Amino acid sequence: MNLWKIAFFVLAGLIATGIIAIVLFLEGPKESVPLPPPNEYSPKGSVLSVKATRNDLEALANNYIRKAMKGGTVPVTMEVKDDVRLHSELTAFGMTFPLKMHFDPVVLEDGNLMLKQTSMEIADLELPPSTILSVLRDSVKLPPWMIVRPKEEEIFIHLTELEIAGDLLVRAKSVDLVNDDIELIVTIPVD
After folding, report:
1. How far apart are the first and last CA of the chain?
2. How far apart are CA 113 and CA 100, in angstroms?
3. Considering the entire predicted model, what is its pTM?
4. Is the CA virtual torsion 165, 166, 169, 174 positive or negative?
5. Is 63 helix (H, G, I), strand (E, B) or coil?
6. Which residues does residue 48 pair with via DSSP β-bridges, in sequence order?
7. How far apart are CA 148 and CA 157, in angstroms?
8. Are 29 and 162 in contact (CB under 8 A)?
9. CB 59 within 8 Å of CB 87
């Protein structure tokens, strides 16, 4: 056997080993962060019901994501249509891939939101949604009020933890994106 054949098989073996290692890393089970216990949302104060549209929710979410990044690069943007879409980029092997994830919002009893993943798009790659969420969680610095849960294929939005002007407290009452009808409850605490 000549030297070129040996070098070829060694290189092919190294590439195959690298690909297997990456797949095992991406597919490996990782524990999801437990959800915080439901808030006993009972502050005393004036309660306002605020009607919003998809555009209002999109602007509000992107504003809070920018604030949480404190002037750094914004790793994710939210688009609200008939579903919630998160746009980001993943860099692997020196290449950047556009990433778009689709979610259905679910209002929880305590007024927080759960985004349940319905589909995702990442270039031409076919990877399980839980893998993409795992990579997103591990490679993108998200605001502390966004909890990515890859195994469950969901993102928890801790609305009651958002720092809003003054001591205002916000929670969701209903989110109907198809009919462009969103209702938020804002509480102005009384001392």
Report:
1. 85
2. 19
3. 0.74
4. negative
5. helix
6. 186
7. 9
8. no
9. no
Which has the closest alpha carbon to 88: 79, 180, 63?
A: 79
- Residue labelled with tokens 């209702």: 183
CB 171 within 8 A of CB 184: yes
pLDDT in tens, the chain (191 residues): 688 888 888 888 888 777 766 665 665 545 666 777 666 556 677 888 889 999 988 988 888 888 777 766 667 888 999 999 988 877 766 777 788 889 999 998 888 899 999 888 877 666 777 777 877 777 777 778 888 888 888 888 888 777 676 677 888 899 999 999 999 888 887 76
Pairing of β 113-122 and β 45-52: unpaired
Q: How far apart are CA 120 and CA 155, in angstroms?
A: 14
Q: What is the CA 184 to chain-centroid distance, rounded?
A: 20
Are 151 and 32 within 8 A, CB to CB? yes
Three-state DSSP at 81 gives coil
Tell me the backbone φ, ψ of residue 24, rounded to 5 degrees.
-65, -40
Please, what is the Cα angle at 59 between 57 and 64, to 5 degrees? 95
